[in-house]
Structure formats: C-alpha cells, structure tokens
Amino acid sequence: MSVAALREQVVEEGSSGIDIVGVSHSYAGRNGPGVIALDDINLNIRGDEFHALLGPSGCGKSTLLYLIGGFIPIQRGRIVTQRGAVAGPGPERGIVFQNFALFPWKTVLENVVYGLRKQGLGAKEAAERAREFIRLVELGGFENAYPSQLSGGMQQRAAIARTLAVDPEILLMDEPFGALDAQTRRVMQEELRAIWQRSRKTVVFVTHDVHEAVFLADRISVMSARPGRIRHVVDVDLPKDRGEEILEKPEFLELSEHIWRLVRAEAVAASRGGH
After folding, report:
1. Where are the alpha helices (DSSP H) in the chain?
2. Could you tell me if residue 225 is left (phi over 0), alpha (psi between -120 and 50 degrees) or otherwise beta?
C-alpha cells in the first residue's frame, strides 16, 4: 500500500484494526540535542491479526507500542482505531509488559479482578469472569497464590489473564517473554498462540527475537535502526495452527533466515551511517 493511500484510509467500523499515519516521535536531550526515535511511520495493522514489530535494539519498537496504547502523546501524525484517533489510554487497548506488573500484595484472583472492578462489574460477576480467564491461561488452582509464589511463566500467564479479562479489542505486548528462560519462553509462545486463536484479538507484539516473531505472527514489520522507520512488512505464510513441530520445517527456517537478513542489514547500515 502506498503512503498516499494509507493517509486516506479510515479504519472500517466494526474493525479492530489500527492505522498509523505519518507518526514521528522525538525525545528531548538533557544536555544536548534530542533523539529522533521514530520517523514518519506509516502502517496498517489489520483487525484480528497478530502483528509483530521487529528490529535492532533501540529502533523505537516500544515507543511505537506506547504511542498506540496512548501512554505517551503523539507529537506528529495520527493513530486511529475503530474508536477514533488515539489521544490517551482507552479500554479497547490492553497492554502486557515484560516485567509482569502484577500487584505483589494481591493474589492471582485479586489481580485479575482489579481491572474488572474498575470497569464497574460487581464483586461476584468480576470474580466469576476472572476465574474464567485464569482457567483460560491454565492457572486454575492458583487463584489464591501471590506473585512471589509463582514462577516467571506463571506470573506472565496471570498478567495476560488480567489484560484479557477486561476484553480489550487490541492487545499490546512489549517483549512479554523477554525475562523468561528459554524453555518457559517456548511454552508461553505456544500458549499465547493458542489463546490468540481462541480470542482473535488484534495483537501488536514487540520482540527482538526473529524466531519468536515468525512463530507467532501473521505479519512482521521490520524496522530500521534509530530513527525507526518501517522498512519491510512481511507476510508469514505458515499454517495458522502452529505447534512446536513447525520450528523444524524448511519453510519456517527459510522465512526466519530471510527476516534475519533484513534485520541484520538494517543494523549494519546503521553502524555504517547508512540511515
């Protein structure tokens, strides 16, 4: 899609897609010139797709995610969902952070109930709904456990349940498995893919792991090194129902190698002053 066409596009009513049009963002410097984090980002994220943002460290992936979430103000350009232009946080956008962000003094059930009560649900209804999502992420039996009593993977399951329970149309995930060991990370990737297939949310997933992006996503946006720009948008032409066996398939390995080369080329170009 051309930039001109994207600038004219409007998210269709009933779609949970996201239009990012001409978005740039800079951070002010303390003792010198500021840093341009994002430069003229134009991207359409389709409704109900799993979209990964991939690129070299410091390319602005998380900044773009927080702009979509409304956690930092948009300086230039616009981001539009079916609810209209993003001007701050909204109930249609939920976020899962890398560090879990659970309340340590609340149990798993109380953590998941918290957002539901803020939405105005009664105590009984909120608890029932929370238990449904705790079971969805396979934490049944741990409702009364505190975060300190859970493994990292279990804490992340609880964080995902808390976000899904409030039923956001768009799920934003900032390297949610980055702090986990390799085995737990693989299990969580499979679980997230299965949860997404059941819930069909629009997911925007930030990662620096090529294999993780290829395993999870429908499409992958490859960003340049700072200032971040969208260099490539790659369709992941793999079966929708993916399990661990896909990791050894030639098509998975070939696509991973292709995307790795794209990411590497951006990192090399930046190191040589090519941006």
Report:
1. 3-8, 61-69, 108-118, 123-136, 152-165, 182-199, 210-216, 250-271
2. beta
**Which domain range does residue 226 map to?**
3-92+171-181+203-271
**Predicted confidence (pLDDT) per residue in 63-119, tens digit:** 999 999 999 999 999 999 988 999 999 989 999 988 878 999 999 999 999 999 988
User: 45: which DSSP letter?
Assistant: E
Segment 32-37 long-range contacts (CB within 8 Å, at least 24 positions apart): 35/226, 36/226, 36/227, 37/63, 37/226, 37/227, 37/228
In total, how many domains does the chain have? 1
Distance CA 161, CA 134 (A): 6
Residue 225 within a domain:
yes
The CATH number of the domain holding residue 77 is 3.40.50.300
Residue 216's contacts (CB-CB under 8 Å, 6 or more residues apart) are 50, 52, 189, 192, 193, 196, 205
Cα distance between residue 74 and residue 95, in whole Å? 18
